[in-house]
């Protein structure tokens, strides 16, 4: 019996080797990875530049010092993150949860600095921001929250893409300090915010003096064809939360601030023991550099469009929707489909089901067009066979409730 705490429903496979977008299990079986560790392994597996950089950092003997001292690699990584986000200040941490938690603290401090005694943040239905007490309170899933009450106060929830609801909150609640949203909801079912909605929401924030917080933990870092979704909408937020693919598998997160949020945090307002350590910063710098050098954003857009279009061409009855942006893809079925995760593993394909009935595809950005077609070739027969088993059953009412196979800590 394992002494690992029982917090996950794990699939019966262990991967022991990887190369490119391919994985091998303990028995030597080969798998095509269309999940990238849930949008983490940006550069796939065994990328030579990342491997070399990490080995050199480890050989230096210095993988951690402390934020009591200068960390030159942290400064260099922050420069890169500031460049691609268009913002000014970077706080490095260790996960998406920590990045969104820091973002919430920035919003509260900003509100207090403006004289709001109890600052509040507008959040959205079906959102997922993490599993700490503050971030699960911001999350739009009762399943995630249940058993951990009392929840942290200070969050006002509205439907996604509903500007009238936001305007009503603005009219009646003068404690609002910020809006926080995932431009594409990952755990909620690959729910894409309309670009016109993002622009209008940003305009409301500008008018009200609120912070716009973009949680791009899952959808950011080039996956959609640009560095970040907000860049498709043509504006800059005040805060961006990053993690997952930022260092291609090395644990890291970042809370990035600019505009109205610049300078809100002062010495002593926040901190991290491990955040910004030289090992993680090597991963950050190398990942960003390789995305640029190998034009992986362009590849993410091209291969993602190919996967979506080729699935659509099949005209499969029982597929309710195919949505996403770039290489962040959701295939919604007309019934719960969690069993497809194990069936796909048997077929040598790694994927995920979220929101009970949405097949989620998040391949490494190094995936080729030929490999993208192979994802479709392996997935389509599985979906057809699954749908042929019986009539549609209603999916669970809340698309924010992830299937156990999708439940991963941030």
Annotation, overall tally of beta strands: 17
Form type: globular
Any guess at the CATH architecture of the largest domain? Answer: 3-Layer(aba) Sandwich
Low-confidence stretches: 396-409
Termini gap: 26 Å
CATH superfamily of the largest domain: Type I PLP-dependent aspartate aminotransferase-like (Major domain)
Q: In percent, how much strand structure appears in the residues? A: 15-25%
Total domains, how many?
2
Provide the CATH top-level class of the largest domain. Alpha Beta
Category by helix and strand content: alpha/beta
Strand order of the largest sheet: 4-12-11-10-7-5-6
Largest sheet, described in full? 7 strands, mixed
What's the overall average pLDDT, rounded?
95
Tally of alpha and pi helices: 13
CATH topology of the largest domain: Aspartate Aminotransferase, domain 2
Helical content class: 25-40%
The sequence of SSEs as H and E is EEEHHHEHEHHEHEEEHEHEEHHEEHEEEH
Q: Rounded to an integer, what's the Rg over CA atoms?
A: 21 Å
């Amino acid at each position: 019996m394992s002494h690992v705490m029982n917090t996950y429903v794990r699939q019966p496979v262990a991967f022991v080797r990887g190369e490119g977008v391919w994985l091998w299990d303990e028995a030597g079986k080969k798998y095509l990875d269309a999940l990238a560790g849930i949008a983490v392994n940006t550069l796939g597996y065994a990328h030579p530049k990342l491997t070399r950089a990490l080995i050199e950092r480890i050989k230096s003997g210095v993988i951690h010092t402390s934020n009591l001292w200068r960390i030159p690699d942290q400064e260099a990584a922050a420069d890169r993150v500031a460049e691609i986000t268009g913002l000014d200040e970077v706080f490095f941490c260790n996960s998406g949860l920590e990045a969104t938690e820091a973002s919430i603290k920035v919003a509260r401090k900003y509100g207090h600095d403006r004289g709001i005694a109890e600052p509040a943040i507008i959040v959205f239905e079906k959102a997922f921001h993490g599993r700490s007490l503050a971030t699960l309170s911001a999350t739009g899933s009762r399943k995630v929250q249940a058993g951990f009450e009392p929840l942290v106060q200070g969050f006002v929830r509205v439907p996604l893409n509903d500007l009238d609801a936001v305007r009503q909150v603005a009219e009646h609640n003068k404690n609002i300090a910020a809006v926080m949203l995932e431009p594409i909801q990952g755990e909620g079912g690959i729910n894409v915010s309309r670009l016109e909605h993002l622009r209008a929401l940003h305009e409301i924030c500008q008018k009200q003096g609120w912070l716009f917080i973009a949680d791009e933990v899952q959808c950011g870092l080039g996956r959609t064809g640009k560095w970040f979704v907000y860049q498709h909408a043509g504006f800059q937020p005040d805060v961006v939360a990053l993690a997952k693919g930022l260092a291609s598998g090395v644990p890291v997160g970042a809370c990035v601030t600019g505009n109205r949020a610049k300078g809100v945090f002062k010495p002593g307002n926040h901190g991290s023991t491990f955040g910004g350590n030289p090992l993680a910063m090597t991963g950050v710098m190398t990942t960003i550099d390789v995305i640029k050098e190998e034009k992986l954003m362009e590849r993410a857009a091209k291969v993602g469009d190919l996967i979506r279009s080729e699935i659509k061409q099949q005209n499969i009855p029982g597929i309710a929707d195919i949505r996403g942006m770039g290489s962040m893809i959701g295939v919604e079925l007309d019934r719960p489909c969690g069993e497809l995760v194990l069936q796909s593993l048997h077929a040598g394909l790694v994927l995920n089901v979220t929101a009970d009935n949405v097949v989620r595809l998040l391949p490494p950005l190094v995936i080729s067009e030929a490999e993208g077609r192979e994802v479709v070739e392996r997935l389509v027969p599985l979906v057809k066979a699954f749908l042929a088993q019986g009539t549609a059953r209603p999916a669970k009412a809340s698309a924010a409730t992830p299937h156990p196979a999708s439940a991963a800590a941030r």
